[in-house]
Amino acid sequence: MNGVHDLGGMQGFGPVAREPNEPVFHADWEKRVLAMNVAAMTQRLYNVDEFRHGIERMGAAHYLASGYYEHWFAAVETLLIEKGVVKRIELDVRTAALGANPAAHPRRDDPALSARLLHAVRAGSAAKSEAAPAPRFRAGDRVLTRNTHPAGHTRLPRYARGRHGAIERFHGVYTLPDAHAHGRGRQPQPLYSVRFEGRELWGESAEPGAWVYLDLWESYLEPA
Amino acid sequence: MGGTHNSEPEPYPALRVRALESLLIEKGLLSSDVVDKLVAIYENDVGPMNGARVVARAWVDSAYKQRLLADGAAAIAELGFGGRGGGDKLVAVENTPTVHNLVVCTLCSCYPWPVLGLPPNWYKMPAYRSRAVLEPRTLLREFGLELPESVEVRVWDSSAEVRYLVLPERPAGTGHLGEAELARLVTRDAMIGVARVTAAAPAR
């Protein structure tokens, strides 16, 4: 979708604000959001593509006015409600109850769950597929990205649509996010690193000697 | 935003986060020790010190460097690194006197967690994500890195599950240093590509 998350090439956000000696987390709730999200994805309550699209579905003004973990939490809440894991009313009621009595949140450990989840997190996820549609393109092939504006999730950014590039390398066969974010299975496809010259993307505004490399699925590309 | 020791009333997101956490715990999908252990991993076990070890090894061991450039995930696994957020497919890109690499994720905030940990805020914010692909040289100048026009800039926009690690150039005058000493010079910013490694120990 042509959402505000698709930031590449936008202007007006000012200089990059850096924080010296930045801590890993800025508040306790951020840690809890990280843990909830990792635990939820590890248990396959939703997948990473649904998660990214959950962030993209935030209101544009909310997205720009909030930080990373608020984005995460918006998606976690949206998805857990949509998947029926929790009900919105349950969450509203519990939030109000904790506001009235912050101590009403007892600690509860579960060593078996913890061992299982930690093992899975260390093992990592696997978007790579052993299914092997033969790659259509080879390194050096010229390609043209599709000029397409899907309403759903895609990983072809606006700034690189309808542009000529060259295949840099074939990465392997990977889950197609455009399908996986919408309950249409993994539909694995060849994934390529594609090299674009700055002038092709930005015209006369391009800086000299600058190239952009994107990882693009085969169905985003046509031979050129 | 309130800190851990803040005695002010909790802000709404914090309350709602705790509410969702307590519901997931009741449903058997989460537990307090899971939260503690996951947080400990990202606070203590993964971070730029992992990537710095990978870089230092590549500087002193040319066979390792070749393996790193050929298959990043397998090469970091040799040092015990991997798992969620980039252990699946990692590509190391090498800086040379004529090529400078820079990593961004314009669509979200993809980052090589196993070797760099969780990303800094600036990496996730609109200013960096919007500008890195459009005006990388201008952006790098703001970071204090002036690149001559003869140096090609390669911006890696992490649009898939592939994650990128910049292999910086080894600074001159470090021939006498061992692997562990070299690792102490390598900064997070150098492995994202917004800084060079210098022979003087970094401030942080």
In total, how many domains does the architecture of chain A comprise? 2
- Determine the CATH topology of the largest domain in chain A: Cyclin A, domain 1
Instruction: Return the CATH topology of chain B.
Output: Nitrile Hydratase, Chain A
**Share of residues in helices of chain A:** 25-40%
- Structural class by secondary-structure content of chain B: mainly alpha
Give the overall pLDDT of chain A as a whole number: 94
Order of SSEs of chain A, N→C?
HHHHHHEEHEHEE
Q: Name the CATH homologous superfamily of chain B.
A: Nitrile hydratase alpha /Thiocyanate hydrolase gamma
**Which pair of chains has the greatest number of interface residues, and how are they split between the two chains?**
A-B, 99 and 86 residues
Count, helices of chain A: 8
Task: Please provide a written account of the structure.
The complex is a heterodimer of chains A (224) and B (204). By secondary structure, chain A is α+β, with helices and mostly antiparallel strands. Chain A has eight helices and five strands, in the order H-H-H-H-H-H-E-E-H-E-H-E-E. In chain A, helix 1 packs across helix 4 and helix 2 crosses helix 4. Chain B is mainly α. Chain B has a single domain, classed as Nitrile Hydratase, Chain A. Helix content of chain B is 46%, strand content 11%. A two-stranded parallel ribbon of chain B has the order 1-4. Chain B is globular, with a radius of gyration of 19 Å. Strand 4 of chain A pairs parallel with strand 3 of chain B, so a sheet runs across the interface.
Helices, strands, pairings?
The complex is a heterodimer of chains A (224) and B (204).
Chain A: H1 28-42, H2 48-56, H3 60-65, H4 68-82, H5 88-100, H6 111-123, E1 142-145, E2 164-174, H7 177-180, E3 189-197, H8 198-202, E4 210-217, E5 221-223
Antiparallel strand pairs in A: 1-2, 1-5, 2-3, 3-4
Helix pairs in contact in A: 1-4, 2-4
Chain B: H1 12-26, H2 32-45, H3 48-60, H4 62-70, H5 72-78, E1 90-94, E2 99-104, H6 113-116, H7 121-124, H8 126-134, H9 136-142, E3 152-157, E4 163-167, H10 179-185, H11 188-192
Parallel strand pairs in B: 1-4, 2-3
